[in-house]
Design goal:
The chain is mainly β. The protein is 6% helix and 49% strand. Strand 14 and strand 15 form a beta hairpin. Residues 1-29 have low confidence and may be disordered.
């Protein structure tokens, strides 16, 4: 018997199959579950958890898996490696960097299994990671080796997590080209450039930064240190930096935690560096302070969180250096990291984690789910009251939950 296949039917089946394979938001049941780093209150262990964040789900706000890392570990930022098959969290205490093992249950739900500490050498107070295509990853250490004006960048082998090199450039050695209290990091591999911020001493009182430093990605040499402040005495504390790359306008963007502003520097193809930074958005004119994270979507929209009073501003960056404000979303005090997803009914939303280091006034301890189009808050998870924990960061369970983040 000869089987007859209608070509049109075959094409329809092929389309549906490919659509199901790629449209994770509608087909994969755990697409609205997220990893969160958390700090415990009342002296209990800190850790990482899986939480449902779709307000339309019956288990909205429920934690389904939890992995304790220890008392005082303070896990801080969650990252995937370049191919999104390894999960990491940095930490302010404990061992400073951990690789997280995960599995899936019979229903495809993510489960946290174990954490493996990674040797960071003398480097302390882990902050941000950046994975490159050549098998390296870079990590900022705000505490460096523990000195008063310290800070370092670790270079690791992404295959075996081994520390390859520690990059140091003490301000005591050269006050014009230095690394101190590095937090934010961004890399443009095509240009062979890396930039880190100078934020604040880990104890939040002993020292403050007001610069960003540009380094050669391959020689690790400091190329220039830029003032990102109104004056040399303005301790603005740049916290995150983003080297725009690919199809985006070639600029560097920086947020200032204590300045409450957004700064910009154009790439100069002649010098192969960036020109001086200038302020492109003054938060004080909008009643905003504590500028923190930056995320870019695929349509040239920039999302920036302001911890005080808890807002996310959406800008159009297609005509930089002009920065056009499109929309303001209201979260809670401490608005910080973000994750982007679709609800089960297809609403485009952003989940905003509202807490910065449990600092009074910007430590709501909530996660706000906001519909991007309308600005309406569809749901709020109060982790402080429900679980006795504060969220520190957020990331997707199916891979990175943003298009570009640093």
């Amino acid at each position: 018997m000869k089987l007859k296949i209608n070509p049109a039917f075959f094409l329809v089946v092929l389309f549906l199959f490919s659509h199901c394979q790629n449209d994770n938001h509608t087909e994969i049941p755990h697409d609205t579950a997220f990893y969160i780093d958390y700090r415990s209150l009342n002296g209990k262990p800190d850790g990482i958890a899986v939480i449902e964040l779709d307000p339309e789900a019956p288990n909205f706000g429920n934690i389904s898996s939890k992995l304790e890392l220890g008392v005082g570990v303070l896990p801080h930022h969650i990252y995937y490696n370049q191919s999104a098959n390894k999960l990491y969290t940095t930490a302010l205490g404990g061992k400073y960097l951990y690789q997280i093992k995960t599995e899936k249950d019979n229903n495809g739900q993510p489960i946290l299994v174990a954490a493996t500490p990674i040797d960071t050498g003398e480097n302390t107070v882990g902050e941000n990671l950046f994975f490159t295509n050549d098998g390296r990853f870079f990590m900022t250490f705000m505490g460096g080796a523990g000195g008063l004006k310290d800070g370092s960048v670790g270079v690791f082998n992404a295959g075996n997590n081994q520390l390859i090199k520690t990059i140091k450039a003490p301000i005591q050695t050269n006050p014009n080209k230095f690394i101190m209290y590095p937090h934010g990091i961004s890399i443009n591999e095509e240009k062979g450039l890396m930039m880190v911020t100078s934020t604040i001493h880990p104890d939040l009182t002993s020292g403050f930064g007001n610069t960003c430093t540009l380094l050669d990605l391959n020689t690790y040499e400091v190329k220039e240190t830029y003032q990102v402040a109104d004056s040399p005495t303005d301790l603005s504390s740049p916290v995150e930096v983003l080297l725009l790359r690919g199809k985006f306008p070639q600029y560097a963007l920086a947020t200032t935690m204590l300045g409450g502003d957004i700064w910009i520097a154009p790439y100069n193809p002649t010098t192969k560096k960036y020109d001086a930074f200038s302020k492109i958005f003054d938060g004080s004119t909008q009643g905003l302070g504590w500028t923190l994270e930056m995320y870019i979507d695929d349509n040239s929209k920039l999302y920036v969180s302001f911890a005080d009073p808890g807002k996310v501003l959406i800008f159009d960056i297609s005509n930089l250096p002009q920065l056009k404000l499109l929309k303001t979303l209201t979260a809670d005090k401490g608005a910080h990291h973000m994750a982007f997803f679709k609800t089960k009914k297809g609403k485009e939303v952003v989940a905003v984690q509202n807490n910065l280091l449990d600092i009074p006034g910007i430590n709501s301890g909530t996660i706000s789910i906001i519909e991007i189009e309308t600005g309406k808050t569809l749901g709020t998870v109060d982790l402080r009251s429900k679980y006795g924990i504060l969220p520190e960061s957020i990331e997707g369970t199916n891979g990175p939950s943003s298009y570009m983040h640093h």
